[in-house]
Amino acid sequence: MPQFIPAYTRPHRDRRDLYNLRRMLPFLWAYRGRALFALGCLVLAKVANVGIPLVLKEIVDLMEQTPRPELTLPLALLLGYGALRLAGSLFNELRDAVFARVRYHAMRGLSAKVLRHLHQLSLRYHLERQTGALSRDLERGTRSVSSILNYMVFSILPMLVEFALVAAILFTQYAPAFAIVTFATVGLYIAFTLAVTEWRMDYRLQMNRQESQANSQAVDSLINYETVKYFGNEGLELRRYDDSLAGWEESAVMSQGSMSLLNFGQGAIVALGVTLVMIYAADGVVQGEMSIGDLVLVNAFLLQLFIPLNFLGVVYRQIKYSLADMDLIFKLLDKEPEIQDRPDAKPLQLDGGAIRFEQVSFGYNDDRGILKDVSFSVKPGEKVAVVGHSGAGKSTLARLLFRFYDVNQGRIEIDGQDLRDLTQESLRRAIGIVPQDTVLFNDTIDYNLAYGNPEASREQLEEAARMAHIHGFIQSLPQGYDTRVGERGLKLSGGEKQRVAIARAILKRPRILVFDEATSSLDTKTEQAIQETLKEVAQHHTTLVIAHRLSTVVDAHRILVMEDGRIVEQGSHAELLRENGRYAEMWRLQQEDKAPAAG
What is the CATH number of the domain that holds 62? Predict the structure, then answer.
């Protein structure tokens, strides 16, 4: 049997649960009046429910004590009995209807806060996370808010109110033995439930982890559907998924077995308590100390107490599971963004859009440097290209410029302002990018194009599409601009997606432009047309071009050649060819590669 180690100790878990419940209160504060009104309805509903056995006792006693010839229908009591039942139902439904707004508003508020926080977390976090596991944890976490509120307001609090009312009646109207047996049964039931449920929690937590892992593997394999097919690895993906589910299966079986033990133990405790109370009540009737109505009353109270109490085990387990799920969400909210605005951060004040890298060193990990003492500048309106072999650090420059990461050493400035002193929102608003790997939303072409400027008119959008040489293609589609592009834009070719990205950047009209292998997925003819478009778009803009094809950057004012994270050469295309160095060697190799293709 596998040994499960608790994720955290019992005292620490209790503190986390109470801490998380307190953090949930602000989401309820907006509708605190509704919440209080719902609690009032809850109390009135339970008063009505407790009053039903009392009226039933009076009806039974009246009919038992009245001789048969003189027996009349106790109409008032019967009407009162019916009215109490109606009132109980009315207040219960009113409570549910009023509290619905509170519950769903809390879910909405937490969901929005989590998504906002996820967008604030660093690129490093999003590159390392697993989408499937995260989406599963988010779903369970936000649903846990509804579950906890639902159980607290509709199960726990009603049970406590009803128990207090019944306890008051038993203490004041009957022998102490009734209350003592009832309290002892409830106490034993709760203690047993707590002990066994705590033991079961480890299996449940293990199930959650394995389910998230399996779900993540399934989602990853489907996202990479084409790669799986390319290599014929359907069997491998299925085995990985099944291995994770095998662990989940073992945990689930243990969880179910322990739940059966818990349910049987709860049933035994309830049966023992009910039997003892009914023996005392029957003996009281035999001794003449209690009436038949008292026996009926005690029996009705037992049913009202122990039937919900039998459900308490399920409620408690679900609350514990929900608290564990909620803990995942609040731990995510506790994760500090790696890149944050300083308290005194100011908006970027654009002048000409000059860029300056000054002795910049950077590495994604401490043990592996990517950029080493990089210094260069791009003047307003100037076009500077960065070339080099894969892994030289070219794309890292763009990530640092967007401040997805902070430099380890040195500084990056725009118009003399250190990026670390600026608000991220103003910085990124001033920069437009055409990335190498264009990922589109699973929505329409219209939506993806307009993402560059949601306020743009349809005419502006179509003009940007024409400039990117994609308007004709869109018009040829049956749904035109309303065509859905599929998950990550998989229904479009690589070239079509890049042209959408170019149109998006055109629509944004930023002061600074970054082209990161912007034409790498285009054929030669389309590339030449797009190059002319990019030249037009880049006019009077500060432009940084990251490229592998040297033919796309021959018109750059200056070309930086990177190797192993350093700038080893720089100059214009003609100057670098005259130097006959690294750039000239790369140029000759690419020209030789193009010659056979042309032939």
Answer: 1.20.1560.10
Whether residue 49 sits in one domain with residue 175:
yes
Kind of pairing, strands 409-414 and 355-362?
antiparallel
Half-sphere exposure of 311 (CA within 13 A, CB side): 11
Whether residue 457 sits in one domain with residue 347: no
Tokens 């094809």 sit at which residue?
549
Give yes or no for a contact between 362 and 403, defined as CB atoms under 8 angstroms apart. no
Query: Pick from 562, 499, 506: which is nearest to 535 by CA?
Result: 506
Read off the pLDDT of residues 20-57 as tens digits, 9 standing for 90 and up.
778 877 877 778 888 888 888 888 888 888 888 888 77
Query: What is the number of structural domains in the chain?
Result: 3
At 568, phi and psi to the nearest 5? -100, -20
pLDDT at 472 over 80: yes
Does residue 498 contact residue 519 with C-beta atoms inside 8 Å? yes
> Across-strand partners of 546?
386, 516
User: What average pLDDT does the chain have?
Assistant: 82
Q: What is the DSSP letter of 484?
A: B
Half-sphere exposure of 386 (CA within 13 A, CB side): 29
Burial (CB < 10 A; 0-12, 13-18, 19+), residue 170, is buried
The string of DSSP letters for 87-110 reads: HHHHHHHHHHHHHHHHHHHHHHHH
pLDDT band at residue 8 using 50, 70 and 90 as cut-offs: very low
Phi, psi (degrees; rounded to nearest 5) at 453 = -160, 90
* DSSP class of 343: T
For the stretch 94-123, pLDDT in tens is 888 888 888 888 888 888 888 888 888 888
- The label of the residue with tokens 């726990």 reads 156
In a domain, 7, yes or no: no
- Of 198, 177, 196, which is closest to residue 188 (Cα–Cα)? 196
Distance between CA atoms of 277 and 255, rounded to whole angstroms? 33
Task: Report d(CA 515, CA 502) in Å as an integer.
Answer: 9
Q: How far apart are CA 545 and CA 566, in angstroms?
A: 17
* Helix (H), strand (E) counts: the chain: 19, 10
Token pair recorded at residue 264: 């049987």
Asked whether the beta carbons of 228 and 237 are under 8 A apart, the reply is yes
Contacts with 333 (C-beta within 8 Å, 6 or more apart), sequence order:
113, 114, 117
Q: Tens digit of pLDDT for each residue in 276-287?
A: 888 888 888 788
Rounded CA separation 413/512 (Å): 13
